[in-house]
Design a protein that fits this description.
By secondary structure, the protein is an alpha/beta fold. It has 2 domains: about 10-175, 3-Layer(aba) Sandwich (Rossmann fold); about 185-295, Nitrogenase molybdenum iron protein domain (Rossmann fold, 3-Layer(aba) Sandwich), CATH 3.40.50. It has helices spanning about 5-10, 40-50, 75-80, 100-105, 140-160, 165-185, 200-205, 225-235, 250-260, 280-295; strands spanning about 30-35, 55-60, 85-90, 110, 190-195, 210-215, 240-245, 265-270. It has a 4-stranded parallel sheet with strand order 2-1-3-4. Strands 5-6 form a two-stranded parallel sheet. The protein has a two-stranded parallel sheet with strand order 7-8. Helix 2 (about 40-50) links the parallel strand 1 (about 30-35) and strand 2.
Length: about 300
C-alpha cells in the first residue's frame, strides 16, 4: 500500500470530512488499485478496463457539483489517494485542488489531457482563479476518444494487458454517436448560446455553436446587475429563444433574465456526477444535451 509523507498525513486531520464518501479504501494485494479523479475519466477508465483481470477502479469525486475550483479533499479522499497504485486524472488544471496530495503520492499518474488541443480558459467572472486552459475537454466527443486511447495505452503498459481492442470498440461507439449528434445539430440555423457555466467551449466548438457569453454562477456569487443587463440585451439583439444553465448549478439569474426577456431556460449537463460505469452514461448525457439544444432552438 502506498504511504503519503507524514506532514501531509497530519494535514489530513485538518481537512473537512463532510460531503459524499470518496473512493473506498481498496483491499487485496494482487489487485491494481486505480483511482479516477472525476466522473468522466471514471467512465472512460471503466469502459476500457471492462474484462481486464486484477484491476479495480474507484471514483474519487462524485458530488452533484458543476465546479471543482473550490473543492477540498476530505479524509476519505486522502485515504483513497494513499491506497492508489494508479491515478487517472483529467488534467488541464481541473484537479488543482489535489496538487499537494499528488506530489506526496508515489502512484503512477495518467493525465488524460495529453495530446489534446487545449482551449484557453474563459476566466471566471466573480472568482479568483487564474487557470490557463479550459479543462472541460470531455465535452468534445473527439477529445473523449483521445482520452480513452491515452487511458488504454498507459494502463496497458502498466498491467501488461492489451486493452486496445476494447478501447477501439468504445471509441467507435463514441464516434458513431458523435456523427449522429452533428447531424441533429446541423438542422438548426446557426444557434447561439448563453450559458451559466464556463464549461461548454469544447461542446460549442465541435457542434458549430456560437458561444456568445458564459457566466459561472455559484452560490454567493450571482451575476451582477450589469451582467444581467448585458445578457438581456444579447437575448433581445439575437432574438434568442433560450439560455442554458448547468444541471448542478444555480439558475436564479437565468430565471430573472427569462422573466425580463421572455426567453426559455434549459439545462445542459457537464457530466460531473452519476451512478453508472462504462461509456453508456457518457453517451446518454451527451445525447440529452443535444436533444436539449435541438428542442430549445427547434
Amino acid at each position: 500500500m502506498k504511504k503519503l509523507f507524514a506532514p501531509l498525513c497530519a494535514l489530513v486531520l485538518l481537512l473537512s470530512a463532510c460531503g459524499q464518501p470518496a473512493a473506498s479504501q481498496p483491499q487485496g494485494e494482487d489487485t491494481l488499485h486505480i483511482v479516477a479523479t472525476t466522473y468522466p475519466v471514471y467512465l472512460f477508465t471503466t469502459a476500457v478496463t471492462e474484462g481486464a483481470e486484477g484491476v479495480e477502479v474507484s471514483l474519487l469525486v462524485n458530488q452533484q457539483t458543476s465546479c471543482l475550483h473550490d473543492y477540498t479533499l476530505t479524509v476519505s479522499d486522502m485515504k483513497a489517494i494513499e491506497g492508489a497504485d494508479v491515478i487517472v486524472m483529467n488534467g488541464a488544471g481541473l484537479e488543482e485542488f489535489m496538487d499537494d496530495a499528488l506530489s506526496a503520492s508515489d502512484a503512477q499518474v495518467i493525465d488524460c489531457s495529453e495530446g489534446i488541443d487545449l482551449l484557453p480558459a474563459q476566466g471566471h467572472e466573480g472568482h479568483d482563479h487564474d487557470a490557463e486552459y479550459d479543462p472541460h475537454i470531455w465535452m468534445d466527443p473527439a477529445n473523449a476518444q483521445v482520452m480513452l486511447g491515452t487511458i488504454a495505452d498507459q494502463l496497458g503498459q502498466i498491467t501488461g494487458q492489451d486493452l486496445q481492442a476494447r478501447c477501439t470498440e468504445v471509441q467507435q461507439q463514441v464516434e458513431q454517436a458523435n456523427q449522429q449528434w452533428k447531424e441533429q445539430v446541423s438542422t438548426l440555423s446557426a444557434p447561439k448560446l448563453i450559458t451559466f457555466h464556463d464549461g461548454f467551449q469544447y461542446f460549442s466548438r465541435t457542434f458549430g455553436l456560437e458561444l456568445l457569453k458564459a457566466i459561472e454562477e455559484e452560490e454567493g456569487s450571482e451575476a451582477s446587475a450589469q451582467e444581467i443587463k448585458e445578457i438581456v440585451s444579447l437575448v433581445e439583439q439575437y432574438q434568442l429563444p433560450a439560455i442554458f444553465t448547468e444541471v448542478n448549478g444555480s439558475e436564479s439569474t437565468a430565471q430573472a433574465i427569462s422573466r425580463e426577456s421572455g426567453c426559455g431556460v434549459y439545462q445542459l449537463n457537464m457530466i460531473m456526477s452519476g451512478d453508472g460505469t462504462g461509456i453508456q452514461p457518457y453517451l446518454d448525457a451527451m445525447q440529452n444535451n443535444i436533444d436539449t439544444i435541438v428542442e430549445a432552438f427547434g
